[in-house]
Design goal:
The protein is α+β, with helices and mostly antiparallel strands. About 50% of the residues lie in helices and about 20% in strands. Bound molecules: adenosine-5'-diphosphate.
């Protein structure tokens, strides 16, 4: 309004050039600014001269009904020190009304408008005669205002209005983006802090886990020594090295021996589990026959209940597999004794077969027979397992339920140890089951295992 006489229309191309220039100036402000306040300051600095304003300000909501000055351009020097304290009430004066009514407010001549008598002193001291205020809208909500102050009292023409609207729109978009960026930066800082915290907790948990496993390994090791002595002396007594025994004494010693052997098995499992988790369990691979391993496993456990039929289905020829035989026997013993334990009557089938396309570890793939795996399946027609428990039974010390524990005994270590041992050997243990129908546990190992360190 200051560059052209009131009634002379501004040529369209000139308007377009000014709008483009303003848009470019704000885009530049946005690109170079590092914080929202800087965006407002830079936008004012670039735009105010384009529209011919003497000075300009940006206000944002501090609360529902109060606006705070967040940026000013060319504010008269002697009043600059009060800028930080400047507050405007929403609804009062041109700026307050622009926010309250969410529209463009134009005041042409402060000195001749009686309703603006309160503003005259300020206008006189600061040196402005007219002002325009445009709402800054964030997410459809008026959150502040952009106010320009002019020295003259000339009316805005349509070209000026459209330019200022463009400026306000641009600034709204800019402010919205800047707020998003600020939110993102805040979220980023928070995430980074949470990450540091999580990492610390993870390390603590890892350390606690390591200490627990160290403790378990040490305790198990210490328990073995006296138990070995108990078993050794029981053996000497049973063999009559300390004198002849009555039948009653012999039976009692057999019970001591059975209990001690079971305890030794539990301690060994605990020790292996702890060492596996500490990455310390050694494996000693050799070439063996998978069928012989199955038979060895079945030979070393208690018989099933009288109503249970046991059968082995295996190829006639040997099934060569390169693995650690003692660990495979251990896994199969766990699976077969579980099948016996959870099958009150029915059938347990142990199958041995060669399969192709089974999961392979990179270690096995790199060095072993990459085409085949050897599979042992232990199938029973016992009580079965609910779908929801199928994962949990592989957790250490987890059993399906308390009543089953009382009925069937056990510690809940067998499957956890079996799976971890199988993985250590480059394979896995998996399960399929239907409650009331039965379960099939599958041990699958690469036919040619190269020690994974
Ligand atoms: P344990 O047998 O000492 O309890 P395991 O780790 O070997 O520990 O087994 C965990 C749980 O998985 C068992 O308590 C039982 O609930 C379930 N389970 C394992 N094998 C079978 C099976 N063949 N049939 C039904 N449930 C089974």
């Amino acid at each position: 309004m200051h560059e052209s006489p009131v009634d002379t229309p501004v040529p369209a191309h000139e308007t377009a050039v000014r709008e483009l220039r303003a848009a470019r100036e704000i885009a530049h402000a946005f690109l170079t600014a590092r914080s929202p306040d800087e965006v407002y300051r830079l936008a004012l600095e670039r735009v105010a001269p384009v529209v011919g304003a003497a000075f300009g300000c940006v206000y944002l909501r501090e609360s529902d009904d109060v606006l705070r000055l967040v940026a000013a351009w060319n504010w008269p020097g002697e009043y600059r020190e009060f800028l930080g304290e400047m507050r405007v009430r929403v609804g009062l004066g041109p700026t307050g009304r622009a926010v309250a009514e969410s529209r463009f407010i134009e005041v042409y001549d402060i000195f001749s408008d009686p309703s603006l008598a309160d503003w005259r002193d300020a206008a006189h001291e600061l040196g402005f005669a007219s002002t325009v205020s445009l709402p800054i809208v964030l997410s459809d909500h008026p959150e502040g205002a952009l106010t320009f102050y002019f020295r003259s009292t000339e009316r805005l023409d349509e070209a000026d209005r459209s330019l200022l609207r463009l400026v306000a729109d641009q600034l709204s978009a800019t402010a919205e983006k800047a707020h998003l960026i600020e939110d993102l930066q805040r979220a980023n800082v928070q995430l980074r802090e949470q990450n540091v915290e999580l990492e610390a907790r993870f390390l603590e948990a890892e350390e606690a886990r390591r200490l627990k496993n160290e403790f378990l390994a040490n305790v198990s090791h210490e328990l073995r020594t006296p138990l070995t002595a108990i078993m050794g002396f029981t053996y000497l007594l049973r063999e009559g090295h300390e004198g002849a025994l009555t039948d009653q004494q012999r039976q009692s010693l057999e019970k001591v021996d059975a209990a001690a052997t079971e305890l030794m098995g539990l301690i060994d499992d605990l020790l292996s589990l702890a060492n596996l988790q500490l990455g310390r369990l050694d494996v000693r691979p050799e070439t063996c026959d998978a069928v012989a391993l199955a038979r060895a496993a079945m030979g070393g456990i208690h018989d099933p209940s009288p109503g249970v039929e046991v059968r082995t289905l295996a190829p006639d020829a040997a099934v060569p597999v390169r693995t650690d035989p003692s660990q495979v026997i251990r896994i199969l013993r766990n699976l077969v004794s579980n099948a016996y334990k959870f099958t009150p009557a029915g059938r347990v089938t142990v199958r041995v077969r060669v399969s192709s396309g089974s999961p392979w570890t990179p270690e096995a793939r790199a060095g072993g027979d990459a085409r085949h795996s050897v599979v042992w399946e232990v199938e029973d027609t016992g009580i079965g397992i609910e779908e929801r428990d199928l994962d949990a039974i592989f957790d250490p010390f987890r059993q399906v339920d308390g009543s089953a524990t009382r009925r069937y005994g056990g510690t809940g270590m067998g499957l956890a140890l079996s799976r971890q041992l199988a993985r250590r050997l480059g394979g896995d243990v998996s399960v399929r089951s239907r409650p009331g129908v039965g379960s099939t546990f599958t041990l699958s190992l690469p036919a040619g295992f190269l020690v994974a360190v």
